[in-house]
Task: structure prediction
Amino acid sequence: MRRLVVLALLLTACGAQPVQQAASTSLTWAIETQPITLNPHLWAQNKARLLVFNQFDALVSRAEDGSFQPWLATSWKVSDDELTYTFELRDDVTFHDGTTFDAAAVKANLDQFRESGYNPAVAAIQLRAFDKAEVVSPTTVKITLKEPDGLFLDFLASPLAGQVSPKSLREAKDVRFGGPDLVGTGPFILDRYVQGQEIHYRRNPAYKWPPAGAGHQGPAHLSEITYRFLPEAAVRVGALTSGQVQVIEGVPATEVTLIEQDPGLTLTTALNSGTAFSYYFNTDHAPFDDQRVRQAFREAVDLDAVLKAVYQGTATRAWSVVGKASPFYDASLERTFGGDAAKANALLDEAGWKQRDAEGFRVKAGKRLTVRSVSAAPYVRDRRDVLAQAIQAQVKQSAGIDFQVKIVDQGTAQKAVDDNAYEIFENSRGDSDVGAALNLILPRDGAINRTRFTDPQVERWLGQASATSDQAKRKELYTKVQRAVVTEKAIVFPIYVPADQIAAQKSVQGLGFDPGSGTPASAYDVRIGT
Amino acid sequence: MIKRLGTGLAVMWAAATASYLALLLAPGDTVDILVGEGADTPEIRAEIIAEWGLDRPEAVQYLDYLWRLLHGDLGRSYQLDRGVGEILASQAGPTAQLTLAAAAIGVTLAGVIAVATAGRGRWLRGAASAAELVSVSVPPFLIGILLLSVFSFTLGWFPVSGAAGPQALVLPALALGLPIAGVLGQVLRGGLERALEQPFAVTARARGLTERALVARHALRHALLPAVTLAGWFTGALLGGAVITEVLFGRPGLGQIAMQAVTGRDMPVVMAVVLLSAAVYVTISTLLDLSYRAIDPRIGG
Result:
C-alpha cells in the first residue's frame, strides 16, 4: 500500500510542474528519420540531409537555378578541357577542433574516399572521374579529373563533400558513424547524440563563412537546436500543436488541414529535386513491349482525380520523368498525355487485346492483359500503396487492364527483378542533379534500368550532358531525353513530384528549403521572432 | 530445478535455430541479406563469408553459429558497422526502465482494483470489469495516442518524447502497463472471489477478521497463483509492446532498434533481438516458477 501512495505522490508531483518551456534562442525540431551515420562522407538519406549542413560546410553551394555559388571556395576556374578545377579557398575558416581549413584539408577529404571500403558507391559513381587533388598553396587547391564530368561540382556541393577536419578523420573513435568527435566547420557544433531520441547542436560562435545567398552573415541566430526523432506523423503534429516542439518536418496529406486551420502555425512545402515518382514500363516482354499498350495504360488513368482522392489535393502532378523543381524540367510535356479512356480502349483494340474475359479484363490469344508491380515494403512510403490501388481500380474499370500490385520483402522484390517477372517498376530519386538519376535509370547498363529499354541516341545525349558543365547545353540535351522517353517511346508514366513540408509555430522565422535538393535547409538562418 | 534449467536451454536453442533457419530460408542470397543496406564491397562480403563460414557445409555453419552464441558473440551489424552486442548493450537500459515501470504500473493497478472491487457491489465490479476489458481490447498504439492527446497535447502535463527524466517515462509506461493491468486485474479478482468462498474464509470471518484483512492476509495468496501463471504472456506483452511504445513516443531502446533493424533489413540485429527476448522470457518464467513455492508451500520441491 505504501508503494501505491508513493506512486500517487509521484504522479501528482509530475502533474504540478508544467513541461519546461525552451529559452527564446533555443529551438526543438521534430524530424521523422534518424541518421544512419553522422559522417557526411557516408551520408545516404535524403531525409537526414537537413542535419548535415548544420555541422559541415562544402566548397560550393547550389542555387535555385542550378548554378553554383561560392562557399568555402571563394572562386574557381575550370580549364577549357574541363579536366582541371582550381579552387581559391577562404583563409579565415577553422574547424570546430581548432585546426585550420586549407587546401590540404580539401585534399585529405577527397583522398579519404580512396580508402578501400570507405564509401565504395561514391568512389565508383560520383568520384569515377576523380584523378588527383594537389595543394598549390594553402588557399589554392587543384583537382584533376580523368575525363570531363558535368556532375563534379554537384558532388562538391552535396553533403558527401562536407569538409571534415583531417585531424578528426584520423582520431575519431568511430569514423564511420561520426559523432561529436568528427567535426566540420559548420554554423553549429554537434554536442550530443542519443540514438532513438535526439541530436543536439550548439552555436559555433566563430562562424562567419555562410554560403553566398544565405539570409544573414555571422554566427547562427539560435544558440542551441535539438532535433527530436518522432517517426510517427500524428505524434509530430501533436507535439507541434501543443507547443512542445517549434518546428516539424514531414506533414502527411491527412494532417495538412489541421495545421492550415491553426492560426498559430505555418506550413511551407517545396518540391524535391531529382526524378518524379513514376511507373517505369518493362519494355522487354509482353504486354509493354508494345508501345500502344504503354500509352493505353497512361490514358486509362484519370490521374488528376486519383491524386486528389489519395493526397487530398496536396500532390503536384508530374508530366516528365524529371521533377518540376529541376532546372532541366521540360514544361512543354505538360498536358500531353493521360486521362483519355476512349483513346486507351482504341489503342488496346488496335494492339490486338480485343476480347474480354468473364471478369471484364482484356484477353489476347487466351492470355489476360495482366501487368505486375513488385515493390519492397521498406521503400513504400507517401501512401504509394493506396495510390497503386486507386490506379488499379481505374485501369480495370476504364480499359480492362489487370494491374496487380505486390508489396513484398526486399529479397522477393530483388528476385522479381532478377527473374524479369514484373511489368511496372515504381521509383523516384532525390538526387540534387537529375542527371545523376537519369544516368542510373536510362542507359542500357544503368544500375536501376528496370525498363530494359535501350536507345543509343538517348545514351549519347546523356553522355554528352554528363561531360559538360555548360548548364544551357545540358538543358537542351535533357529536354531531348525527356521528349524521347516520355512522348516518343512512352517508357515511363510520371505520376507526382515528391515534396517536403515544414510546419512551424508562427514565431519561428528563417525556415526554408535547400535550393539544391528541395529538402529542408539547415538551421543557420532560423530564428525566433517576436 | 534441473528440469527447469533444461527446459530453459531447450527454448533458447529453439529460438536460436528458428532465427537461423529464417536467415537461410529468406528469399535471396544469405550474404545479401546479412549486408542489408550496408556498404557492399568485396572485402565486406569476404568478411561475412568468413564470419558466418558460408563457404562450409550448412551443418557445420549451423554448429559454428551455435558455438559463437555460446561464447556470447552475437555477430556484427554490417549496416551500423558495429558489434551487435555493443548496440544491444547501449539500448538495454531505457527498455529495462520502460518495461519495469510498465510492469510496476500494471501489477499495482491490477492489485489495487482487484482488492478494492472483489466481492463488492455489482456496480463497482461492473465498472472495473468494463475498464479492464477496454484496456485489454484497445491496441497499445491507440492507448498511447490517446494518452498523448489528453495528457501531453491538451493538458501539457507530460512531455511527448525522450527519456529525459521520470516525467517522460509516465505516459509510455502507462500505455504499456494498462493492458497488463486489465488482464491481470480480471484474473486476480476472479481468484480473490473464489478464495473468499472457500471454507477457510468462513473460518477466518468467524474468528472476527475484517473483510479487508481477510483479503490482504489470506485470499490474495490464493489468487496470486493463477496470476503468476500469466507471467509468460506478461513478459511477451511487455517486450512486444515496447516496440510500438518506443517508436510512438520517440524513446531510445531495444524495441526501437528492432523496428529499425526490421525495416532496414539488418538481419544480425534482428536475430540478436529475437535471442535476447527469448533469454529474458526464459529467465523470468523460470524465476516465477520458483516463486510458486514461496507463494504456495503445498507445491513441494
User: Anything to note?
Assistant: Chain B touches chain A through 52 residues (CB under 8 Å). DSSP finds 13 helices and two strands in chain B. The CA atoms of residues 52 and 65 of chain B lie 7 Å apart.
